[in-house]
Design a protein that fits this description.
- The complex is a heterodimer of chains A (about 350) and B (about 160).
- Chain A is an alpha+beta fold and about 350 residues long.
- Chain A contains 6 helices and 18 strands.
- Chain A has 2 domains: about 180 residues, no CATH class; about 140 residues, Kinase associated domain 1, KA1 (TATA-Binding Protein).
- In chain A, the strands form 2 sheets. In chain A, strands 1, 2, 3, 4, 5, 6, 7, 8, 9, 10 and 11 form an 11-stranded mixed beta sheet that branches. In chain A, strands 13-14-15-16-12-18-17 form a 7-stranded mixed beta sheet, with helices on one face.
- The termini of chain A are far apart.
- The relative contact order of chain A is 0.12.
- Chain B is mainly alpha-helical and about 160 residues long.
- Chain B has one domain.
- Chain B has 5 helices and no strands.
- Classes of the chains: A alpha+beta (about 350), B mainly alpha (about 160).
- Chains A and B meet through strand 14 of A and loops of B.
Chain lengths: ~350, ~160
């Protein structure tokens, strides 16, 4: 073997071991974004937004006052219309990551795609967000829940998308990004930023959890299992070989379970990145009280054993159903283990008799 | 010059028959493999499998199409083909590229399956794009040899 061949062989061995040992940094990953926008939808949405005359539109619902300067957090340099049921900013619009949005009147923040020129300090905001994306480091952590700006998958590579997502960081393992909000669209012609256009009062807010179990006690005391044993049983359920997730308590009533880049024990032949979140809540407004167990799952799958971002995709409807069914069964078993006598009133409602 | 052994010499008719048999076999095996493998646990989804099938089969279907046209073509439209170089080259150039294509494709499929097996180190698998690239490279060899041979052999009306 010549020295040239030896060195080429060593280089190949080194290259292959190096690629195996290194994990792809989050900054180089690309994720498929659920309900992602593109420049076309952003343009349409912004055009219809700017057509609306806020004075006329809001005037029908009460008094409208133009306020200048109008505040957004600590900055007092905006102009806005104020009504009894919210606020509507005028360009240049303020921006903020969803979890950093300051308090505004009402309970619903109105966001809209706006061209960078229509955004307050647009270039600086863009630079700051892209800097966070380039770092690939989770930030603004609260317990195991952090935030991360990720780059989304673009179908034709002519546009670049960024989204801020929640990630669970359990024992240094960063889980699948979830609850992503798209914040930047970069095209050759323009850059769109997700701006805050105002806020309003919304009476009913709807969440999108995968499923919720309710646990009711039995008369006459209607005693319910306390949170600690419930969370312990759920943690035990996550360790079951059929789902085998690493879990950690987050705050008093929340449990987070993760798995990254592993062969799926539920979807044969597929690999997965998954985060399952369980939230417990006790009703204070209902008599007798009951316990609600809400399970939310974020799942990405890959048919191959690759770490290329474009190979990781959202599961098909059937895969999601199969996955949730397995999680549902394990959670059901865990809840049943808390009771000495059980009766499922319907698939999601358990009547549970706990030890006196 | 060394004497030519009889088993090294291939007649034009034998070359045509061999190419038809090879094209049929490869088309058949490819169809069976790519249609069955996703269902049998090979790490490809049906969508990816059909994509690979679409890369491989047109080449061999093209050879079979040329052969069919040759069989029913009008003799007046066809011209005889002459082999100018040493006769043993025909066999080498007809069979060699097809064998190399077969071995290269087999190697790529084994590497793909092995690197994507369940207990492989996470992230070390071969991607479908790389597999498609490997198969396309192997098909490239056919493009510069077998395609040309087919265009000559199946444009002639001569029979031996």
């Amino acid at each position: 073997m010549t020295s040239k061949t030896v060195s080429l062989f060593s280089l190949l061995v080194f290259a292959s071991t190096a690629s195996l040992a290194d994990q792809v940094p989050m900054s180089e990953q690309r994720f498929e974004l659920k309900w992602g926008s593109n420049s076309d939808s952003a343009t349409r949405s912004y055009q219809s937004f700017t057509k609306e005359n806020p004075e006329k539109h809001w005037g029908e619902h009460g008094e409208v006052t133009l306020r200048s300067p109008c505040e957004f957090g600590d900055i007092q340099e905006f102009r806005c219309y104020v009504t009894d049921w919210g606020v509507r900013y005028l360009p240049p619009f303020p921006t903020a990551l969803p979890h950093r949005t300051p308090d505004l009147p009402g309970n619903e923040i109105d966001r809209e795609w706006a061209p960078i020129s229509e955004v307050y300090d647009g270039p600086k905001v863009l630079e700051r967000w892209q800097q966070l994306a380039r770092s690939g480091e989770p930030f603004d952590c609260k317990g195991p829940i952090c935030h991360l700006i990720v780059q989304g998958v673009s179908k034709d590579n002519s546009e670049t998308y960024y989204a801020v997502c929640q990630v669970a960081k359990v024992k240094a393992i960063v889980g699948a990004p979830e609850q992503c909000h798209q914040i930047i669209i970069v095209t050759k012609q323009t850059i769109w930023l997700q701006a805050i256009t105002g806020s309003s009062v919304v009476k009913h807010k709807v969440g999108l959890p995968d499923f919720t179990y309710t646990v009711h006690g039995v008369p006459p005391e209607y005693k319910l299992p306390s949170n600690d044993p419930v969370l312990k049983e759920l943690q035990k359920a996550f360790q079951h070989t059929k789902i085998a997730l690493i879990s950690e308590l987050y705050e008093e009533n929340t449990l987070i379970a993760n798995a990254s880049y592993r062969v799926s024990p539920i979807l044969p032949g597929w690999r997965e990145i998954v985060t399952v979140r369980v939230d417990l809540r006790r009703t204070s407004w209902s008599e007798p009280a009951f316990l609600g167990v809400t399970i939310s799952t974020t799942l990405y799958v890959n048919r191959q054993n690759t770490d290329r971002p474009q190979d990781w995709q959202l599961p098909s409807e059937q895969q999601e159903t199969q996955y949730l069914s397995e999680i549902r069964n394990r959670m059901k078993e865990a809840l049943e283990a808390l009771c000495i006598q059980t009766n499922w009133r319907n698939p999601d409602e358990l009547i549970c008799k706990v030890t006196p | 010059m060394e004497p030519i052994e009889w088993w090294n010499v291939m007649t034009k008719q034998a070359a045509r028959i061999w190419l038809i048999k090879a094209s049929l076999s490869i088309t058949g095996v490819t169809f069976v493999f790519f249609l069955l493998s996703p269902a049998l646990g090979y790490p490809l989804s049906f969508e990816q499998s059909i994509r690979l099938l679409e890369i491989v089969t047109p080449v061999f279907l093209g050879y079979l199409g040329s052969a069919t046209t040759f069989l029913f073509g009008k003799e007046t439209q066809m011209s005889d083909v002459t082999i100018r170089g040493p006769k043993e080259l025909l066999q080498l150039l007809v069979k060699g590229p097809v064998y190399v294509f077969g071995i290269a494709t087999l190697a790529a499929m084994v590497a793909f399956g092995y690197s994507n097996r369940t207990d492989a180190l996470s992230g070390s698998g071969m991607s479908v794009d790389l597999l498609a690239g490997g198969i396309s490279a192997a098909l490239g060899l056919l493009a510069v040899t077998t395609n040309i041979i087919v265009s000559y052999l199946f444009s002639s009306g001569e029979s031996q």
